[in-house]
Amino acid sequence: MTGEWIVQILDKKNYFKQHLVLIPGSLPALKPSSLRVQTEVLCLTSNNFTYCKLADMANWWDVHPIPPNTPAPFNDPATYGRISCWGYAKVLESTFEGVPAGSHVWGYLPIGTLPIDFEVKAGNVENQVIVTEAYRQNQLPLYNRYLVFPESIGKEIEAKTDGIAYDSLFRVTHLTGYLMAEYMFAQDPKQSINLTPEQADLTGATVINFAPGSKVGLAFTYALKHGRTASKPRQIVGAASDYSKAFVESTGLYDAVESTLADPFEALGRLNHPKDSKIVIVDFGGRHFLQWKWAAMLVSQYPKVQFIIVGAEVSAPEAAVAPPGEPPAGLDISQVMADGLQNLAIQKAGEKEYFAGVNAAWEGLRKDGIPGFKINWGEGMEAVKAGWTKYAENKVAAEEGLVFKV
Q: What residue ranges in 82-178 does DSSP mark as E strands?
């Protein structure tokens, strides 16, 4: 296959700076047990910038390396790199019996139109494949698992349906929220996969989400609100910035919405939170470290305060990912890593049972949608470039989801 393709290449030291680079050439013969896929639908979210910020630590620059025929100066991997996105790719060629050409896969994809090849094996669950390429084995298993869809889903992609957009924008963040609600804060706290029963018990708790309009924040809240019959929190509160407060209120998911600039003690008074009940602060990427200010104040006056770290706000490369100094004394801190939670959930429930549960829950959110959320479709790599710049300049509205057909 010969052609010309466009890829996004970033300056590693300033990932707000991007380039669309034309890659001409020919693709080699496809190896055995391999797929050749081309990104067809992708989304941009704050996750993309988290991947950039932590790429050196997590080897995310290595998932989709700079192609060998990239023109100078962009062929220098010390300076430039490619980051990934979630979405759908079309299978152009296949030497793997279980996935014919014309199928689609959903998973962790490169940003660009250049096809990629990877060797795969069948997953233990139907309609899943696992990447077995040697260079991908230093990635967490979550990023090497792809879902397989029939050729017929191409009609939905061509029509740019809301379902396809939700799959791209929300499916992986829903997975994180589901794992937190079902396996971390299990309805039977004794069954939590990573917390003590006391830590996992949400009975009567006030859960306060920072960045409550984030996709994973919405997914976690949706999961707590749907189908939970035990260990139910007293209330779920969105601590929102002025940027997102109106949208968070419009979703109807939260029992109350408070400003991040509010006095935490006054807020807890308005919420009628009992002094001896637990407070769980969940940080999905709150702005300006105000979540830590709330935590420091509340832990000084309330006996049971947990702090759960999930995400980070979009920030410049040089910006700190945590506030200076030591965490507040007495604060019970846990961190969420989706891949680690998924591995533990699979061990506990069994792989088929786990995926049956998460897929059923996903279909529920996909069907219901998020009230007030607006899908913004773009087309082509120039639109992707404009969307990246829009994020970099902090101009993406809180209720806006950016998804592209490339």
A: 84-94, 104-110, 116-122, 128-131, 145-149
Q: Which residues contact 12 (CB under 8 A, 6 or more apart)?
A: 52, 55, 56, 61, 78, 79, 80, 81
Per-residue pLDDT band at 162 (split at 50, 70, 90): very high
CA distances from 365 to 38, 113, 213, 219, 226 (A): 27, 30, 15, 8, 10
Query: Among 10-19, 313-322, 373-382, where is mean pLDDT lowest?
Result: 313-322
Report how far residue 118's alpha carbon sits from residue 95's, in angstroms, rounded to the nearest whole number. 10
pLDDT digits (tens, 9 = 90+) for 18-37: 999 999 989 999 999 999 99
d(CA 12, CA 167): 28
DSSP 142: G
In the chain, what is the greatest distance between 2 CA atoms, to the nearest angstrom? 68
- Nearest-angstrom CA–CA distance, 204 and 236: 10
Confidence check: pLDDT of 320 > 80: no
Rounded-to-integer distance, Cα 120 and Cα 33, Å? 6
Task: List the one residue out of 285, 312, 385, 380 whose CA is nearest residue 16.
Answer: 385
207 token code pair: 């859960």
Count other Cβ atoms within 10 Å, centred on residue 279. 23
Please tell me the distance from the alpha carbon of residue 262 to that of residue 289, in angstroms, as a whole number: 14
The answer to whether residues 7 and 20 touch, using CB atoms and an 8 Å cutoff, is yes
pLDDT in tens, 186-235: 999 999 999 999 999 999 999 999 999 999 999 999 999 998 999 999 99
